[in-house]
Amino acid sequence: FQRLNRPNDFRASGSGRIRYDPEKIDREFIRLAFEACDKLDAEVLGFDCLYDKNRRHVFAELTYTFTYAAISGCPGHWLREGTWVEGKRRCEDVQVELFLERIRRTKASRRTAVA
User: Fold this and answer.
1) How far apart are the C-alpha atoms of 12 and 17, rounded to whole Å?
2) Is the dihedral of CA 19, 75, 44, 70 positive or negative?
3) In angstroms, how far is CA 46 from the centroid of its own chain?
């Protein structure tokens, strides 16, 4: 989703103005966010994405916590390859699913290493 600025203000935080249109999201930010998660070995992160004065993509902030009110309005989510998937999901459910998958992968790699 996009947090929009207040009228005549540069800040988006706390404006309450949110746009949930996936067509308005720059796909390069999606790619960069997944790349950053990989490099940080993180399952879930939220990014504040901006353009610098030369229209380069930059992250102004990243967080592992989310405001439920904003996330709950999302009509879907992005997959790593850039595909949009319709349907609401609770972020906390996704975090638990990803955490459990990581545990399964770790156990499987330990079994393979021992065998």
Assistant:
1) 8
2) positive
3) 4
Q: Contact at 8 Å (CB) between 86 and 94?
A: no
* Number of helical H runs and strand E runs in the chain: 3, 6
Dihedral sign from CA coordinates of 55, 60, 63, 68: negative
- Arithmetic mean of pLDDT, 38-65: 91
Provide the whole-model pTM: 0.80
Whether 32 contacts 57, CB under 8 Å:
yes
CA-to-CA distance for 32 and 78, rounded, in angstroms? 12
Query: How far is residue 36's CA from residue 83's CA, in Å, rounded to a whole number?
Result: 18
**Amino acid in position 34:** F
50 in Cβ contact with 29 (< 8 Å): no
